[in-house]
User: Which sequence fits this backbone?
């Protein structure tokens, strides 16, 4: 298992949860979420890993697209969004996104 001998730099994942419906189309909210991810990644103990659905998905298509909802989401974020129908219109009821800590450093010769 040569790959386990090489350096690795992983740690626990930090999950940010928005447990209620907000207006994701509002730049104030989306920019605040992006700023949180950016601040997280600027910490010394954080590696570059992040999962942020808002940068991967087409929000307009999710909320207003013609296709069935199951086809409007990519596999990338299907587990990170809770979408419900309100007045025959999809609404994001909750969401989550991630950063990751560094916590394991160095090489080991014991493997």
Assistant:
């Amino acid at each position: 298992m040569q790959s386990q001998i090489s350096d690795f730099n992983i740690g626990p994942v930090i999950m940010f949860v928005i447990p209620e419906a907000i207006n994701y189309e509002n730049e104030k909210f989306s920019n605040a979420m992006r700023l949180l991810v950016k601040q997280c990644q600027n910490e010394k103990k954080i590696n570059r890993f992040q999962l942020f659905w808002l940068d991967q998905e087409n929000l307009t298509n999710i909320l207003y697209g013609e296709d069935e909802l199951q086809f409007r989401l990519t596999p990338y974020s299907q587990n990170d969004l809770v979408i419900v129908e309100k007045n025959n219109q999809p609404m994001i009821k909750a969401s989550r996104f991630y950063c990751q800590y560094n916590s394991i450093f160095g090489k080991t010769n014991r493997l």
Q: What stands out?
A: The chain has four helices and four strands. Helices lie at 2-5, 27-42, 59-64, 69-72. The longest strand covers residues 89-101.
